Amino acid sequence: MESNKKKEIGKIIIAILIPLVIGGLSAFFTKDAMANFKNLNQPFLSPPAWLFPVAWTILYILMGISSYIVYKNKNVFLYKERDNYLILYIVQLIFNFCWSIIFFNIKAYYFAFFWLICLWILILLLIINAKKINKIAYYLLIPYIIWVTFAGYLNIMIAILN
C-alpha cells in the first residue's frame, strides 16, 4: 500500500510540475522583454507586475491537479473523453507557452490577441471535456479561462494603445 501511495504522490507532483516547468520556460525566454513591457501604455485595470507570476503559478498548479484527476480516471466509458482531454491539455500548454513569446519578444500584439483567442477556445474545449469526466477537474479550470479572458482584454488594449 505504501508503495502505491508514493507512486500516486509522484504522479501528482509530475502533473503539477509539467505546467509549472512550461510556464517557467516561457517566463525565462521572455524575461528580457519585460523591461520594454513596463514602458508601454497600460490599459485601465492593468494589475501590478508582481501579480502575473503569482496568478500564473496558481493557475499552473490548478491545471496540473485537474490533469492528474482526469488522467487517473479509470472509467472505461470515458476513455475517449480522457484521451481528448489530455490531447487538448498538451495543445493548450503549447499555445500558452508560445503566446508569451509572440506578445513579449516578437511584440506582435494583434497576432498575440488572435493567438490568445485560439488559446481561449482550446481552454473552453478542455473545460467542456473535463466536465464530462470529473466535476472537480472542471472547476479547477474555471479560474484559468477567467484569467485568459482578462489577459485578452489587456492584450487587445495594449495593441490599441501602443
Short description:
The protein has one domain (2-41, 48-161): Ferritin (Up-down Bundle). 83% of the residues lie in helices and 0% in strands.
Give an account of the 3D structure.
It is a single chain. The chain has one domain (2-41, 48-161): Ferritin. The longest helix is centred in the N-terminal third of the chain and has 29 residues, at 2-30. 26% of the residues are buried. It is mainly α. It has helices at residues 2-30, 34-38, 51-71, 79-105, 109-133, 135-161. The mean pLDDT is 94. The radius of gyration is 17 Å and the shape is elongated. It is 83% helix and 0% strand.
Q: Give the SSE string.
A: HHHHHH
Strand content: under 5%
CATH topology: Ferritin
Instruction: Report the helical percentage.
Output: over 70%
Low-confidence stretches: none
- Principal-axis shape equals elongated
CATH class: Mainly Alpha
- If you average the pLDDT, what whole number results? 94
Provide the number of structural domains.
Answer: 1
> Which CATH architecture is right?
Up-down Bundle
* Number of helical regions: 6
- Give the tally of β-strands: 0
Major β-sheet annotation: none
Spell out the blueprint of helices and strands.
Blueprint lengths: L1 H29 L3 H5 L12 H21 L7 H27 L3 H25 L1 H27 L1
